[in-house]
Design brief:
This protein is mostly helical and 418 residues long. It contains 18 helices and no strands. The relative contact order is 0.15.
């Protein structure tokens, strides 16, 4: 039986990863300026390169680490990544050049790809009917980390620009010790499989997973939904400033409010909704809420109404864990790591693509004297179109078949012995 501490460890791991990312965000502009001697404009370009490099490494290494965990186990992959994460934050804390900082962010992208192994642990220790709730808890931990990270990083920045890196290293090291004591190996002879390089690269892994019945369509839905979802970090700060005249404090507070509401929804509601409506019904409900949300933010002109609507908009965050649960049901027990690696790579692609699309749309609709009408909410309307596409694909999707080793149906009311 898996240790009772396995799930708490996984939740802490993903939360610390999110905290580590958020910790350094408040100090990056000043640190980049110090390292390059450039102005804020050029520093912003370096910041974009750091963010893109991180996402590219997640795309490349997500399937590799997922396949390694299917072969050698989740425990060694996760613990080795935590050790590398701690050392990497130490290196960034003493970085004396922008290139060393850039290299550190690339390594962070590799260690961040351990979400594949972490999600695979959640799938290993959960029955099919319980996976949506587990993925929701992981999403809640991520949300809590993204809320706490920037707040803590801002406080630590008052001590020193490099203090957040030291703090992130300490958190990773402490969690490594916890994992050595608490994390059992959840890969057994029954769900272990050989490692093949042909499936460990992103393209090979995509092809292998997409061949599973029904998963090609679901992966497409996941990718489109992720691009739509990343409209929030892509343009929210600019949108709030232009549409409502918010200052950085209000923008940061609004993001923290959304993150807290999202974490609460994923922690409390996902399991209840999937038990009541099933994965498919929960997807329809969540995407419907997302569609209303994006249409609302596309046209709203009152900052007060935008804030009041935040808890409603957070209800749409049930979509991601329901999607993960639905895909996990269709994958065999020995392919859970590979599937989660592919999902991580898709998320990384969305992290690269969405900012390019959404900021371009925002610029086109807010440029003074431009040919298009002034509409700061235009990126949210683009997201609404993507959600409509997802709903159409979901509507046309046949019922997913169960793999040979599945033990439950994808229905809201499962048999008592399922």
């Amino acid at each position: 039986m898996p240790s009772r501490l396995a799930l708490p460890f996984i939740l802490i791991t993903v939360m610390i990863d999110a905290v580590g990312i958020g910790l350094i965000l408040p100090v990056l502009p000043g640190l980049i300026e110090d390292l390059t001697g450039a102005g804020l404009g050029d520093a912003a370009l370096w910041g974009g390169l750091l963010a893109s490099g991180y996402a590219v490494m997640q795309f490349l290494f997500g399937p590799l680490l997922g396949n390694l965990s299917d072969r050698f186990g989740r425990r060694p992959v996760i613990l080795a990544s935590l050790a590398m994460m701690a050392l990497n934050y130490l290196a960034m804390a003493v970085a004396g050049s922008i290139w060393l900082l850039f290299a550190g962010r690339l390594v962070s992208g590799v260690t961040g790809a351990t979400h594949a192994a972490a999600n695979a642990v959640a799938a290993d220790i959960s029955g099919p009917d319980d996976r949506a709730r587990r993925f929701g808890q992981i999403g809640a931990a991520l949300g809590a980390g993204f809320v706490a990270g920037p707040l803590l990083g801002g406080l630590l920045a008052t001590i020193d620009l490099r203090a957040p890196f030291w703090a992130a290293a300490g958190l990773a090291a402490a969690n490594l010790v916890f994992g050595l004591l608490a994390l059992p190996e959840t890969v057994t002879p029954a769900n272990r499989r050989p490692f093949r390089w042909a499936r460990a690269n992103p393209l090979g892994a995509f092809r292998a997973v997409a061949r599973l019945p029904g998963l090609g369509r679901m992966l497409t839905i996941y990718g489109l939904y992720a691009v739509a979802m990343f409209v929030w970090p892509s343009v929210w700060a600019f949108y709030g400033a232009v549409q409502f005249g918010w200052d950085p404090v209000r923008i940061g507070g609004s993001l923290a409010l959304y993150g807290a509401a999202m974490a609460l929804v994923q922690a409390v509601l996902v399991g209840r909704l999937t038990r009541r409506f099933g994965d498919r019904g929960t997807l329809y409900l969540g995407m419907g809420i997302e569609l209303v949300t994006y249409l609302f933010y596309g046209v709203v002109t009152s900052g007060g109404l935008a804030l009041l609507f935040t808890p409603v908009s957070a209800l749409g965050s049930v979509v991601m864990p329901a999607l993960q649960s639905r895909m996990s049901r269709a994958a065999a027990a020995d392919a859970q790591g590979e599937l989660q690696g592919v999902i991580g790579s898709l998320m990384a692609v969305a992290m690269c693509l969405s900012p390019l699309v959404m900021t371009a749309v925002f610029g086109a609709f807010t440029r003074p004297g431009g040919p298009l009408p002034h509409l700061p909410g235009a990126p949210f309307l683009v997201s609404a179109v993507l959600i409509v596409t997802c709903l159409a694909l979901l509507r046309a999707e046949p019922r997913l078949p169960r793999p040979a080793d599945a033990d439950a149906e994808d229905e809201p009311a499962a048999r008592p012995d399922a």
